[in-house]
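Continued from yesterday's entry.
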Amino acid sequence: MNKKEFMDIMKNSLLESGISDIDDILNEYEEHFLFKMADGFSEEEVSLKLGDPKELAKQFVQEAPVIKVKKKNRFLTGLGLGFLDIFVGCIFLALFIGVIALAAVAISSATAGVLLITKMNIASLLPVMPYKSAVMFSVGLIALAILVFITVVYGFLWFKQLLVSYSRFHKNCMAKASNKAVYPAKATFLQVSGKLKRTLRGTILVSLVIFLVAFIGGYAVSALEAKALEFWHVWEWFQ
């Protein structure tokens, strides 16, 4: 069945069961369809993977004689998730630190590029070179900063998506242990709109080309200025 048929059957089933938060439930499944279809799956494939909408709707019904859930099951599930949270938390912390480190690299590269092109060698942090070489290398450094910054954007968005995905996994595990309704899993891969994805990819391509051209050109100009392929020795950069 297609998306409309699936959503209509689920909506009718929820209405017949007298569920109060129908809109929230339908929004969850609507979002799941959108994400899966953005990854190339057809409406029929998504519907088939989700299962029978009537059966899915039944899990949201709170029956009068609620099934007794052993506290032991909830305790063991919560304990297991607690240990998993510690492990996953360490991974999230490492990812977060990596994103922050890349942001620092982007800022440093952009700052160095600006200082070179404006002839502001603060505290002699940058190597001395002719202005032509400085301009070429500064353009390359700024292009590199843009590349790394986009990587930071991707990293932040992916980090956020992983948090959402793990939060849903955590919630569903506890729901299963309590015999409660389980919502569709959230994707672990990056979820961005097609327009933003194309914009980021285009910027990456342009920045990469500028970076390569600027650094190759900077090397060539520097070699000509110093009349030596190892121009850094001529200008005594490492002495």
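--- second protein ---
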Amino acid sequence: METNEQIKEMVKQKYSEIALQDKESNASSCCGAGTCSTEVYNIMSEEYDDLKGYAKDADLGLGCGLPTNFAKIKKGDTVVDLGSGAGNDCFVARAETGEDGRVIGIDFTDAMIEKAKKNAVQLGYQNVEFRQGDIENIPMTANFADVVVSNCVMNLVPDKPKSFAEVHRILKPSGHFSISDIVLVGELPEKIKNAAEMYAGCVASAIQKEDYLNIIKEAGFKNVQLQKEKAIIIPDDILKDYLNEEEIEHYKNSDTKIFSITVFAEKGDQCCTPSNSCC
């Protein structure tokens, strides 16, 4: 069994490689990890084309939702994007918060941070910045952000309760988040659960849907809502890298389902949780 630090290092290495891939390769695989599918183009990602602020060069096709579209961002807000990649969701958030707001992207990999900073410079944005950091220990003071967004990243973090406690810590008492992620109902085959590519691809790293929502509630969040849910189908030509034909058929006929969900929750006026006695 790999330790949390080993998992983090594997994710960092994989996403350093993914940062150099094009959107087509990433969108036709599971979050850019492993081989590409010829059966389905967009396995998880959704199209941003109609969203204000969308920057094509910053879209690596790594998301599994449109959290910024659901995040209720207001003019002048301070927005934090966790796992900001090349900056795509940050630039969409910037269009909502305006020039008087502030957007900060946090990412684990140096290659992504470098790519995002270059994109911000090319776009001429002065109120968008990027920081290298671990979501389990976000480099930010408490009660800082009005809104937190994240797109298909929280499932990659080994200690999910700690990461959501960190989201709670950095949000203002009146703040909220909108997060898109991958969750499960049922159990994945062991060969998929143990594949590094499928962990980095946001599949093997996913936890049970109810456990995910309970972690959010236990972190102290209120008014937890599912804003969107859709089924994710892994094509046969990707499954064949890990399962034989009989195993594929058994998996497809099982009750196991993979979902992309977008979750909204509010910090509320109370800032105290079992892990954060800030009052």
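Residues 24-33, 35-42, 271-279 have pLDDT under 50 and may be disordered. The two ends are 38 Å apart (CA to CA). Will compare against the first tomorrow.
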